[in-house]
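Exercise 3.2. Students should predict the tertiary structure of the chain below and write it as structure tokens, then compare their answer with the key that follows.

Predict this chain's 3D structure.
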Amino acid sequence: VEFIVRNQQCLECQAEFRQGSWKSLVQVRQRVSHKRTFLYLEQLILKHQAHRGCLSIETFRDGMDFYFPDKGKAARFISFLENVCPIRVKTSKKLISTDDKSNLSNFKYTNFVEICPLCKDDLLLLPVKLARSLGSMSRLVIVKKISNLIHLLDPLTGQTASMTSEDYWRLNNFTPLI
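Answer key:
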């Protein structure tokens, strides 16, 4: 009697080990000297298992790359990021192959996610227009909390306000003082 053992893998495992198996890449970056918001985001990703379905993860000095097998899983991950921190997303796609007879194209998608450089307990000097639009706050404020909004606190009066990520990126001319 002669036995032949052939190991088999599921389709996702086979795709993981093939070269060029990912279809969508999410590059998450935060460009600050301290990474408090990024570290908080890592904890949330692990807690809620948002990285589920990810083929591989690579770390870099200013962020991480998440490789996904399809565009839908990457979109779900980006949606999670939008719900937990202020981000800005840029999307691009690259044509890998095309079949003119059957009218099919194969693309690889790259999503660049930039996390707001503000972190909890940062001291900010707001532009005059923004301070007026937030309920006539003083221009010197402290970042109280970072969630999908940026929560600000006036240390002199105790007045609080919230700023959306769209407002921050539109007026991207202020950075933390301390």
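Discussion points: The CA atoms of residues 27 and 112 lie 5 Å apart. The longest strand covers residues 87-99.
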